[in-house]
Amino acid sequence: MSNYYEVDIKKDYKTIYQYAIGFEPELPEDASKIADKLVDSVKKELRMKTGFICFKGRMLWGNTELKMALNCKTSIEVKGEKQEYEIIIKPAKTITIDEFITKDESNLTKLSQVFNVNIKNVLRNIGFK
Predict the structure, then answer these.
(1) Could you read off the pLDDT of 105-126 as tens digits, one per residue?
(2) How many domains in the chain?
């Protein structure tokens, strides 16, 4: 078998929380580089409040539950100008590892999405394009 990797789920990751992310002012869907910069600018706060695991598109995953929306204010430089933004993070789904033991195809898709995003982020951070 090729491309098989055993993954050990840490105790801290028995439940994964998925959050929808919005931006104010609103970003176009194709503004992923700006979205990445915005999330990176508040990553420390996100780690503390959401247990940040990974982020992709308009979704963020963490291992800490938020009961209510979280608003983070930040500013980044866009095209040479400093711009103020607000990042709005809202609870979307709760994913428990027990859901995946059932071998239900839809549950496996949810978990593989989290792992796939995380692995791509790690590879990008070590220099793979």
Answers:
(1) 665 666 677 667 767 766 666 6
(2) 1
